[in-house]
Amino acid sequence: MDWLSLYFELPVFQRQFKGAVTCPFKKLYVAMTLYSDVINRNEVVQHATEVNSKHEKPTSESGKQASIKSEEACKSMLEFEWLHLVLQPELVTSVDHVSYAVSRALTNVLSQKVHSGHFATEVVYMMGGSSSVTKCMEEMCIQPCEPETTCKSMLIVTISKPKKFGNIDNIVKGIQMPIEKLTAITDQEKVIRTFKCSKDELELPGGLNACILMRIGTKRI
């Protein structure tokens, strides 16, 4: 049986911030839905941006944004109900690619070792193959375009605390595909170029997917 969407739970094993503050939840819920031939990419990207923009890092009494590595800013990164990622599926090697990145982003926040000011951005950064947050966002996320063209494939990932996922899937005008088709859409040569995978890495047990998961585990420790 083919599943059109995938839902899974990610338990939080590290329950405290670097300080004495306890993480306010025990698990995150993740939904993944794959589409082809999406004709309204700009509307979908705009909706995700509007949902995610509600959770920017806080400002201090002086009006300046807090340091992204302060405890206050890190705590605020987890003050969301749900967040959306609109991804290029040809650069996603597996469901594990997503789950590892979400887990690693959460670890970064709790350890106050983040590289961005937003949890959704932190996840994309951990998924990407560059040391630049901006470049990871450009490579991994679907971008709006003018004039708007049909998006051949789109992967929507929603990260939720209350096990509610919003209505982004109701907005998409495209063909929903079984999530099992994700690995068939992955462009392995493009992934290898984007992540600059070496021949030695690709010869390890697990091949390309293992290489990407290893990169997530060791990125900017």
From TrEMBL:
Keywords: Nucleus, tRNA processing
Main localization category: nucleus
Recorded GO CC terms: cytosol; EKC/KEOPS complex; nucleus
Name under which the protein is recorded: Uncharacterized protein
Keyword tRNA processing: yes
Subcellular location per the Swiss-Prot or TrEMBL entry: Nucleus
A biological-process GO annotation: tRNA threonylcarbamoyladenosine modification
Origin superkingdom: Eukaryota
Tagged with keyword Nucleotide-binding: no
Pfam family, one: CGI-121
Similarity comment: Belongs to the CGI121/TPRKB family.
